[in-house]
Every structure is written in C-alpha cells, then in structure tokens.
Amino acid sequence: MSDDGWMTPSVAAAQMGVSEKTVRRRAKRGTLEARQVTSRYGPMWEVRPPTTGSPDMLGGVQGGGPQFGELVRWLRDLQEENRNLAGQLGYLQAQVEQYKVLQAPAESRNVAAPHQSAQEGQQGASMAGVVSDDLERPQQAPRKAWWRFW
Description:
Layout: H1 9-16, H2 20-29, E1 33-39, E2 42-48, H3 66-103, H4 106-109, H5 112-127
Antiparallel strand pairs: 1-2
Helix pairs in contact: 1-2
C-alpha cells in the first residue's frame, strides 16, 4: 500500500472482505477509484477503497446497517408466506384427490363384476360339456438376465 491510500486489488479485497474479482468488477463499473501504474514487472492496477461508505462498498453486510435489517424482515415475511402457500397447496391437492374419487365412473368402481360374470359363464359352460378342462396352458419363455440384451 502506498502512502496516499492506493493498494493492489488483492489487498483491497482482503480489507473490504470481498473477492478480488469483485474489486476488479467495481473498479471497471466505476464504483471504486482505480488507476493503472507501471511497476518493474509491467503495468498493474491499484485501487483506492473507500474508508467509510455504504455496506455495498465495504463488502456487503459487514456494517449491518438499516438495509440489512429490512432484508432480514423481508426474508422472514417471504418464508412465512411460502409456508402458508405450501399449506394451501396441500389442502387443495387433497380436495382434488377427493373430487377424483367422487367423480370416478361407476364401471371403474366395479371392475371385479365383469370378471366374476365371465367366470360364472365359463363354469356353466364347463358343466354343460362345452369347455374341456384338459387344455394345457402355454409355457412361458425362460426369462433372460436383465444385463443380457442380445
């Protein structure tokens, strides 16, 4: 650091509590005073960080000024609203499920009825001698291992 307050971006970043990239970005944007000087290794940049200023200039929330308190309150309000909306969403999803159950067609509620009547018809046919019981079931193909694709 030179006598007049100029320092390298890395030293300024450490003092301000931000990254060196942030210091370079702020210098490019014009929010930090910067200059290019020559050194024995070639041109280099120096910045003059603010001694006092807004929390944004000093690295964000280090000062914890009035903006920080407002942000915390705003965040708490948003979290509470998020919890309330999640509860409302759960309630509405439960209502939709109940509505689906009530609106299901009668045939989907009585799925077993056609199957039972078909069995009764088959039993009646076998008693009448129409269907023989000596029919063989088709054999299933042997299952291949899941890792065999060919």
